[in-house]
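Predict fold of Cucumopine synthase C-terminal helical bundle domain-containing protein; 314 aa.
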Amino acid sequence: MNDSKRVEIAWPALGITVAAELDQRNPALAQCFWDALPYRSLQGHALVAGHHLYHVAPVHSLLHAPAAYRVDRRTVPDGTLFCSRLQHLGIKYGELTEPMTATPIGQVVPEDVDALVEAGREVWHSVYTTKEPVIAEVRRAGEPGGHELPRLPVGDPQLNDLIADVHAETERIWLEPPRELVDLHAGRIQSRAGSYDTVLTTLLFVNGETRPLGYSCYGGLVRAALDGMPLPWLRQMTRQLAHTPAEFLGYCGLDTLWGFTRRLMDGLERLNSHTDFISAMAHMALYCNCLGGWNLHLFPWQAGDTLRRLEATA
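Predicted 3D structure, encoded as tokens:
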């Protein structure tokens, strides 16, 4: 391990800090992460996979950085750090059940694993019950913390203005919940979405549309552009993949997202280089992933507290 690649992950609200060493299993991915430090982000917790922490890292290159070494997350030691093309920094802290391959970049030092487990339990309590946000601060060991969202330029002036607005909105909601999502989760839905005045149904569908819009649609478009897909095809795929879910989310109350999407659709023909296309889609991905993180935090998971998994019988 390279001592110069030691990081600290702190949760100031919990009074917990752990140290981790980055390694060479996926060096390009680890370097992207290292170069982006320091940053802060809303800390999330896996809701299906098990004892796993993750948060959105403000690193555009995580969408596409090469990562050849893959492992089954269930089989690696507790304290393993992962970076993913979902723009996540993940940390395993206990049993995982999901058979998903992942790309490790480092390891929490052995003496801090107990503190990591404590942090995991506290974050689960935050996400599942209290809804009090826990902010993670990630920094190079021995260096000060801080936070800044990267900004990628776009050559066309009109689209550059759009991306500037997307960047500013992402900064505004990065550590504070978006008012539109707060209203939605409180049942203040101007369109009256939700049959028979229900709210949980609308929240469920909003969650189901927001996450793949960032993860699959915009993240996938970035990777397709880097793979050399011709621009006319990229523009057509953007129209096919992004318009309908964004329009639905606008109906449910995410007017800012729908407004950005309409401006993007209107300007697609002016994205006349792969570089500009990648910049625009990367910013849309980070914005949607930020929305998705807040939606997962605010969602009333405790509403299903009476539904508990049963052990399979022979």
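The chain is about 45% helix and 15% strand.
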